Every structure is written in C-alpha cells, then in structure tokens.
Give the backbone structure.
Amino acid sequence: MVALRRTLEALEAAQVENAIVAGWPWAKIAEVLGVSKQAVHKKHAKRIRARYPGERSRRKGEDR
Amino acid sequence: MIFSCFTRECRRCVEAAVEEARMLGHDSVGDEDLLLGILRAGEGIGAEALSASGVTLEAARRESEAMLSEALASIGISLEEVRREAGKPFDMRIPRGRRVPFSPRAKKVLERALREAVRFRNGHIGTEHVLLGILRNEDGTAVRMLAHMGVSPEALEDLLCEAR
C-alpha cells in the first residue's frame, strides 16, 4: 500500500529528527529502530543537519 | 524522445507534474500528478477545459490529500493524528536530491496522449491530448479524483472535442 509506505517513511524521518533535537545519540536511535548506527546516520544525518544550520557544534562528539 | 512534439504548454505541464508529485510526497509521478501538472501549468486547451468544468489546482490538491487520508483511514490510521503526534518535523515532501520517476500508469497516459494526437492528425502533443490520455485511463487515480470532484470523464471529453 503506497499510502502507508509513504506515511511510514515520513514518520520515521520526523521521529529521528525529534530524537536528535531532544539530544538522543545516533546509537540509541539506531537501537530503537533495530538498524545499525551507520545505517540510521547515513539515511538521516544529512537531511537533519540541513534543517538545523549552525547547531552542529553542540553535538560534535556524536556526529559520526 | 517524443518530448520534441510536445507543445510548450505541454512540456510545462509535464515539468509541473513532477513538481506536484514532489510537493505531495508521491515517490513516483502518477496519472493524478499529470492532471495537477496541467492545472499548475495553467495554459493550454486541457487547462481551459478543466477550469471550465470548475476544477481548480487547489481543489485537486485537496482531493489528492483527502484520498491519501481515506486510504489510511481504511486501515485504521488517522493521518491527522500521526501528523499531530510527530509534530513539525513530519514532512511528506520528497527531498530535492531524490529522483521521482514516472509511474507505469503515467507513462501509459503519455503514450495514449501520443495516440490521441495521431488519431486527430494533430502535428503536436498538447495538454488536451494528455488530458484525453488521463480520461482513457478509467481505473486511474486521476479519473477517481475527478469523479470525487463531481466531474465525469464524458463531460470533460465533450468539452475538449468542442474546444478543438
């Protein structure tokens, strides 16, 4: 069902963003989603970083 | 490809269809996006026939969203609730970098548009031919969308034939 897949994807993207903004480390997000840390970072990091320009330094240690 | 026989309006409508698909979060350009593309480009015989039938871009977009909500509601998911729970970051739009291919149905619409142009011995493919292609696709999403907006394919076709 296309509608469901699209909604699910948007929902995952939104919740990962919410988690990052709330200060969750990538490793914890990956654990919750049941995927590797690298996978979740690859899929979401670029998009989220683009949406929060200049906020990168706060999470320097976590970002990779 | 056949793009060279497209009228300027028609080329614009195909480009606009891709933009609409992106904006509405469709991961491929469907026949309904071609309909939205005709409306968004806003020029050409196809767009005139649609506006004469009372179909506007805004209404068509709303209908497309409503059909998504209905599809989700039918399996017990409230899009409104999902949106509310996820908050501001929830965004269905397709990001810039990702390609949005044409769906098999949209390709068929364009093929039919070509066939209609040949049938009428028109030396070009215009938005009227694309719209006819859309209407011939009876089980397509666009025809369903039009029906929800109270427009029958037959009535639209009559309008198109008059305009030519």
Observations:
- The two ends of chain B are 25 Å apart (CA to CA).
- The interface with chain A takes residues 25-27, 68, 71-72, 75, 77, 79, 82, 86-87, 89-92, 95 of chain B (CB under 8 Å).
- Residues 8-24 of chain B form the longest helix (17 residues).
- Chain B has a mean pLDDT of 93.
